[in-house]
Amino acid sequence: MTPDAPFAGRGVLVTGGSRGIGRAVVLAFARAGADVAFSFRQDRRSADAVARAVEELGRRAVVRQSDSADLEAAAGWVDEAARELGRLDCVVTSAGGTGSIGWEVPRAEEWTGLFRTHVVGPYATVRAAAPHLRRTKGSAVLVASIAGLLAYPEEIAYATVKAGTISLARSLAFALAPEVRVNAIAPGWVRTDLTRALYDDPRARGAIERAIPRGRWGEPEDIASGVLFLASDGARFITGETVAVDGGELLAWRIGLER
Amino acid sequence: MFDLTGRTILVTGGSRGIGRAIALELGAAGARVGVHYRERRESAEEVVARLHDRGVEAKAFAADVTEPDQVVRLLEAVGAWSGRLEGLVTSAGIYRGPTVDEVDAEEWQKVIRTDLEGSFWTVRSALPWLRKGDRPAVVTLSSILGAHAAIGGAAYQMAKAAIEQMTRALSLELAPGTRVNSVAPGFVRTDINRAGHEDPVFSAKVARATPLGRWGEPEDIAPAVRFLLSREADWVTGLVLGIDGGLPLR
After folding, report:
1. For residue B208, is it within any domain?
2. Domains of chain A, with CATH numbers?
3. Which residue of A has its CA nearest to B220?
């Protein structure tokens, strides 16, 4: 292990690794020395580009198109990734990124679809990974959202299921202790394809900027840094935590930002 | 990853326990470290010597943080040495465990003045130097007892709860320039709670109640402080990070 490559010789699995936060997580792990397996749902071209970038860093990339919410499929893919990489030290569940649904959620299937993506998927992935992570005393990081900690009526189903992701991380942390640590990371407003419509609208972009004490939108790399910390040996006594990486948005008394 | 080269950081209470581990970790990450102590000059100098051995610049500074005048002079001395600060860690603290019936005014005040007021005035006095620093950040020391209750030591618990709110309030006031975060350790084996971890019955009870199955060590806390002070944590502010082996999960 060198200081610059703390994850050298380690294997990491990321769901939803072709775009956005997941992509940044894959690349950050590769830069830190890890071999990375990642899944994607739709965007093969992006997934291939990420895999090439990992390989250019001199690391192995294992890519699979997968719906991580299927328990059996998740188990098959996780086992395959562990076999290909030789070991699994960390799993990061970052699959998500459906479009906007809004406050009036007309159909039950939309609720269940989001629940599958943000709760069942992470559960299935971590459950399948648990035996591998026990062997390496590894950890899991679930990407949630500060929407799961605040009122978010614009996307009521998304906020509700992300609260579920946070709760899932706590129960999994308890269930898999002491060998495996499980934590959640709760990003605020991050510039990805998912938020592009808002970011490209100057009024919406500015309103969000003004709500963030740090004064800027997050970048996927901001979230990846938090994930890498939680996955690192330095976080060896941290489990069941929800870490907000949000430029301070969560703590602000909404009336108090203007001076 | 989480490299601190070129950053100057003051660690209060850096001669012992968690503060000592933090000072050593920050130095190992490349930071120039000011090591504050109250009484134990030899311990502080030992930390400084270890940092020097690793080729890291470091210097020890004495002050009683319960005296705001001394805190002002401490930061003057640190500023004269370093010219600026990229980081401040307020880990000077004491613990006293009397119940509400037992506690006297002197003991109560000593805890509040050291843990709470000492932290606040240290941050306040450091501001001019932090504002000269590159992407500065503050890390305060809370405790699992800042948000969870125990019998005995109410003043300590109140001080730690107040430190958490101080962290949030100052992270907003000092935004967007200076980040302020806190770490909240669970049961960590240091001098402060030696009576606890040297009592085999209590020690085993803590380990059993902790999902990760053991007491924390000072070295378990330091890397989180390093992360929070790093450039990579640029979008993290107002966070209180529990480092407790999962103890409060249920």
Report:
1. no
2. 11-250 (3.40.50.720)
3. A237
